[in-house]
Write a structure and sequence with these properties.
Layout: H1 25-38, H2 43-50, H3 57-63, H4 73-80, H5 83-95, H6 97-107, H7 111-122, E1 131-132, H8 133-142, H9 147-162, E2 172-173, H10 186-192, H11 208-221, E3 231-235, E4 251-252, H12 253-258, E5 262-263, E6 273-277, E7 287-289, H13 296-299, H14 303-316, H15 333-345, H16 359-372, H17 382-387
Antiparallel strand pairs: 1-2, 3-5, 3-7, 4-6, 6-7
Helix pairs in contact: 1-2, 5-7, 6-11, 7-14, 8-9, 9-10, 10-11
């Protein structure tokens, strides 16, 4: 699930027949080999690295079948945060306490944050994926949906191969090319891989200390702020100006407090700014999203996944089960797509018409709610659909 927002600009060298994506797969691979040689890699190493590569149709199918993100926050979080995962998280926190202490000291990342990723990505290392990583990366780079993300990963994997940390024929992981217990892409491993257990290798598949230290270092590189919270459940007054809510509208937490917002458990971090997050509208769960919450979107772009991972991290550190409230029913897939089409016709950028309530669709919904005089909580309803 880990599809990071890698701000990588591809530098394409002027090679004859070098295509960024598409075309015959064999020609595409020849172009990759030519570019690898232009980058200074020896012909023999390049030939060996690409010797077994082949297109994997199952990867393309997986990339186009991410229906799990169409679930609401309540449905998704209740499905993936199980009693067993919480108990295993607590057990792993004790088992790897020294490593988590090092992560906190070196990178400022709290144990619950990495435990939640570890759980959701691979069930604490038990399910790391069975896709050949090189096949996945080349297949996705050849496909023209997101070549700017996956093409650089191929050359990063080649660098790992040169270092002895990648086997093109045997290295396996998730369908999108992530490797190891916390699912990191090859570029992430090159930049942030840490030998946490001191054996001289960075082994994210077999070494929990390596995976956790590397994950912590990566989060810091993405902007994690040491010692600060990321998400906290709150209670909001019924008369709040809902148009002020949403991740794009941050205010000093003291200002929210003055409006009647309070922590459901504990105290708000009044020295920080925060945004009010209503994943299922004003009638559902409510959270204060602090600056660190935004770093989650550098790990994964799915709103539902990110919110669940951040909330799960708080649970693993002792937060109570959230109050689900009584939100209005989520729109069906067909209704959500119909809403996205209507919003697009009104000039809003909602991205792909995919039935997923992502950030762009939420922003458009909130603006339409303001225009129509509805409570602007960014949660789409049948009433909204009927009035646009």
């Amino acid at each position: 699930m880990r599809l990071a927002a890698l701000s990588v600009v591809i530098s394409l060298l002027p090679q004859v027949g070098l295509a960024e994506c598409g075309g015959e797969f064999s020609n595409f691979v020849r172009g990759l080999k030519s570019e690898a040689i232009s980058r200074g890699h020896a012909q023999k190493r390049v030939d060996t690295f690409f010797a077994t590569v082949q297109q994997d149709k199952k990867v393309l199918k997986a990339d186009r079948s991410q229906g799990v993100f169409k679930k609401s926050f309540i449905d998704f979080s209740q499905a993936v945060i199980s009693k067993n995962r919480i108990q295993n998280g607590q057990a792993n926190a004790k088992k790897h306490a020294k490593t988590f202490q090092r992560v906190a000291a070196d990178y400022g990342v709290s144990p619950g944050v990495l435990l939640a990723f570890w759980a959701l990505e691979t069930d604490y290392g038990a399910v790391q994926g069975d896709f050949n990583t090189l096949n996945s990366l080349v297949t996705l780079a050849h496909d023209c949906r997101r070549p700017e993300l996956f093409r650089p990963q191929i050359f990063a994997a080649l660098e790992l191969y040169q270092l002895g940390n990648f086997d093109p024929a045997r290295t396996k992981g998730a369908w999108a090319g992530e490797i190891g217990m916390v699912q990191m892409l090859p570029e992430d491993i090159l930049r942030n891989g840490v030998d946490g257990d001191g054996d001289g290798k960075v082994s994210l598949k077999t070494s929990a200390p390596d995976a956790l230290m590397s994950g912590g270092r990566m989060l810091r590189s993405l902007g994690w702020r040491a010692g600060e919270p990321w998400l906290q459940e709150i209670v909001v007054p019924s008369g709040l100006d809902w148009s002020k809510t949403g991740l794009e509208r941050a205010l000093p937490v003291r200002d929210w407090q003055a409006m009647g917002v309070r922590a459901r458990d504990g105290a708000l971090a009044t020295g920080l700014t925060g945004s009010i997050l209503l994943p299922m509208g004003r009638k559902g769960p409510a959270f204060m999203a602090y600056p660190n919450f935004h770093v989650y979107f550098e790990w994964n772009k799915s709103f539902v996944y990110v919110t669940t991972a951040a909330y799960f991290a708080t649970r693993l550190e002792g937060a109570p089960v959230y109050d689900p409230g009584k939100p209005d029913p989520a729109l069906s897939d067909a209704d959500m797509k119909a809403l996205q089409k209507k919003l697009a016709k009104r000039g809003y950028d909602v991205g792909k018409i995919d039935g997923i309530l992502g950030k762009l669709t939420r922003d458009a919904v909130q603006k339409e709610q303001v225009r129509l005089g509805l409570p602007a909580d960014a949660w789409p309803t049948k009433e909204l659909l009927g009035r646009i």
